[in-house]
Design goal:
The complex is a heterodimer of chains A (about 350) and B (about 290). Chain A is an all-alpha fold. Chain A has two domains: about 250 residues, ABC transporter involved in vitamin B12 uptake, BtuC (Orthogonal Bundle); about 35 residues. Chain A contains 16 helices and four strands. In chain A, helix 3 packs across helix 13. Chain A is globular. Chain A starts with 5 loop residues before the first helix and ends in a 14-residue tail after the last strand. The relative contact order of chain A is 0.15. By secondary structure, chain B is mainly α. Chain B has a two-stranded antiparallel ribbon. In chain B, strand 1 and strand 2 form a beta hairpin. Chain B starts with a helix and ends in a 14-residue tail after the last helix. The chains are: A mainly alpha (about 350), B mainly alpha (about 290). Chains A and B meet through helix 6, helix 7, helix 13 and helix 15 of A and helix 4, helix 9 and helix 11 of B.
């Protein structure tokens, strides 16, 4: 094997960036977004700003994990708070009672969420469409009832407080959360881009046809439940360790609803859509805290109005405005181009 | 005895809500999360008219139903109808709608718990338990409403149109039924049912901006348990879950926390055995 000199590698990277990233506005935006997130602490270390972005990252993972399950396989899950709360409570209990550091308790919380994904997934696989949506909504409420009924273990309404943080420094915490979010998002995006992801997508479009092609759809749906539970569990555990408390609010119906709102608002079956939506909506919600009594109202009105004009979600809408697809080779181009950048066919 | 009364009242309330919800789902395939929010609006309108303006409770209830129907139609026309092809978007729109209503009520009436006085006072004693006249009245009114609804659906042309659209939208459309007008009418009926539920239950319940959350969940459980689109199913399932809740609250310590959990667990158990609910017909897969 021959070594490639660093200079050649660098040149290849530059070519890659120039030919694959800079040609499409959506990719430029993503690249700039990642760079801005990573560079932010160098510019400002405002604790409030950092806090908002950390929470945004946590919820971005959650929203993307919902998209992985519901957006891609079409298994509408209205009880995503179950995974979130399960991750939060498990890692909190492990951290408090067994003194397991966050590095261990968050993954264990995620595993617990995977387990609940299995337990919930198996009965739910027999249900379809609206039945499934309404049934999944029940699970976090059942768990919440159990939490309230066992106040000695779970702290009842007050929750479990006094958890360790992942890192004690402000910037350290910031990088842990932001980098985790970026890595997990990339992993999720890769999953949906893989063979498995294509099967997920196909299940949503036409389950019968997928089954007729000799694919065990039940197994793939269960896998989607587990994968989604894993990522949601991580975000739940990280949320608990950042807020230093795991309370029943993580299981509320409004939590499940927020996840659905974020994902649909961003655009289903994209992974980056829900993330973009969280990064738009969550800071926006923080921004309108100047009028606390109108906050939820403004949020709801904005969501409603945007949905009226972009029912497919903001990401699809923005992409269609900035780019168009080549009719011949299906590669995306900037909207300003007259001909396709690959096959030079005329764009209409 | 207490269990019986609470069960009957809760069951009746759930039956009315669930039937309204499953009607609009059946005809227009709209999952209306804001359904119970309309019920909350009705409760508040009655409170406002009877306690603040001194309107007699009976008229207050009628006006409340009219207000709710008007609101429901406006919401349908301007918010839901334009995005009806996008199922997920409709879902979010109704969630947002419910949130807006909750916040509006929170702003106007603050978050305090309010009560409305009963239509008729007094009680009688059966088996050592007080039974308020209002409770009897509520139950009887619910039965009358359900009977009227049954007549409407089974004996009139409109009812036939609604049922056939629920069964097969395309064929109903081909048979010359105006699908979008029918959806509008069904929305009105469905919302009116929510309003009526609010009207009959308000003297027995506490009025607060968050009162829509809890019945929403149980109502959905009822609808799923009974089978989507089946009126009879919703009726039976409503009483099953109503009595379960009452039993859990009265017989198990800390039952008030667990009532939702037990009711929902029953729903899940039944679904494991019959994925299409108790009375649901398994639809031909829609593709």
């Amino acid at each position: 094997m021959t070594m490639i000199s660093p200079a050649v590698q660098l040149k290849r990277l530059v070519t890659l960036v120039r030919t694959e990233v800079l040609v499409l506005p959506s990719r430029v935006i993503v690249a700039m977004f990642v760079l801005a997130l990573l560079g932010l602490p160098l510019v400002s270390q405002n604790p409030y700003l950092i806090r908002v972005i950390i929470l945004t990252s946590v919820f971005a993972i959650l929203a993307a994990s919902w998209d992985l399950l519901s957006g891609f396989t079409g298994q509408m899950n209205f009880g995503h708070a179950l995974f979130f709360g399960m991750g939060a409570y498990t890692s909190a209990l492990l951290n408090i009672h067994f003194a397991i550091p966050p590095w261990g308790s968050v993954p264990m919380g995620a595993l617990a969420a995977v387990l609940t994904g299995l337990i919930v997934g198996i009965p739910c696989l027999r249900l379809r469409g609206t039945y499934l949506a309404l049934t999944t909504m029940a699970f976090p409420i059942i768990l919440m009832g159990i939490v309230f009924a066992l106040p000695d273990l779970t702290g009842g309404e007050l929750g479990i407080s006094g958890l360790q943080r992942l890192s004690n420094s402000l910037v350290g915490n910031y990088y842990i959360y932001v980098v985790t979010m970026l890595v997990l998002s990339a992993v999720m995006w890769k999953i949906t881009d893989s063979h498995t992801g294509i099967i997920f997508h196909a299940i949503r479009e036409d389950e019968l046809a997928v089954r007729a092609s000799g694919i065990n759809t039940t197994r793939y749906k269960l896998m989607a439940f587990c994968l989604s539970g894993f990522f949601a569990g991580i975000s739940g555990g990280m949320y608990a360790h950042y807020m230093r408390i795991a309370g029943p609010s993580t299981l509320e119906v409004s939590m499940s609803f927020s996840v659905v709102i974020w994902a649909v608002f961003g655009g289903l079956a994209t992974i980056y859509g829900p993330i973009a939506a969280v990064f738009v909506l969550f800071p926006f919600l923080e921004f309108v805290r100047f009028w606390p009594e109108y906050r939820t109202m403004i949020f709801a009105v904005v969501v409603l109005l945007i949905l009226l004009y972009m029912p497919e979600g903001i990401v699809h809408w923005a992409r269609d405005k900035m780019e168009k697809e080549c009719p011949r080779c299906k590669i995306r181009n900037v909207a300003t181009r007259k001909s396709c950048r690959v096959c030079t066919a005329l764009l209409d | 005895m207490n269990i019986l009364i609470t069960g009957l009242i809760t069951g009746s309330m759930l039956a009315l809500l669930a039937i309204g919800f499953s009607l609009i789902f059946g005809v227009a395939r709209i999952v209306n999360i804001a359904h119970t929010a309309f019920y909350m609006i009705a409760a508040y309108t009655i409170y406002f008219l009877s306690a603040k303006l001194g309107v007699s409770p009976f008229w207050a209830m009628l006006i409340a139903v009219a207000v709710v129907v008007a609101l429901g139609l406006l919401a349908y026309r301007f918010l839901i109808d334009p995005i009806r092809e996008h199922e997920a978007a409709v879902l979010i729109a109704t969630i947002a709608l419910a949130m807006i209503m909750q916040e509006a009520m929170l702003l106007i009436f603050t978050g305090d718990y309010l009560t409305v006085s009963a239509l008729i006072q007094g009680f009688f004693v059966v088996g050592g338990v007080k039974v308020f006249h209002q409770q009897v009245l509520t139950f009887v009114v619910v039965l009358i409403i359900l009977a009227a609804l049954w007549l409407l659906l089974m004996k009139t042309n409109l009812g036939l149109a609604i049922r056939s659209t629920a069964e097969d939208r395309e064929v109903a459309n081909l048979m010359g039924m105006n699908e979008s007008r029918l959806a509008m009418i069904t929305m009105a009926i469905s919302v009116a049912l929510a309003g009526l539920t609010g009207a009959v239950i308000v003297p027995l319940a506490v009025v607060s901006p968050f009162m829509w959350m809890e019945p929403l969940i149980i109502m959905m459980a009822v609808v799923v348990l009974g089978g989507l689109g089946s009126i009879k199913g919703s009726f039976v399932a409503a009483y099953i879950l109503g009595f379960t809740e009452a039993l859990v609250v009265f017989l198990i310590p800390k039952g008030a926390f667990l009532k939702g959990s037990v009711a929902l667990s029953i729903m899940i158990l039944v679904l494991l055995l019959r994925p299409e609910g108790l009375f649901g017909v398994s639809f031909e897969e829609e593709r």
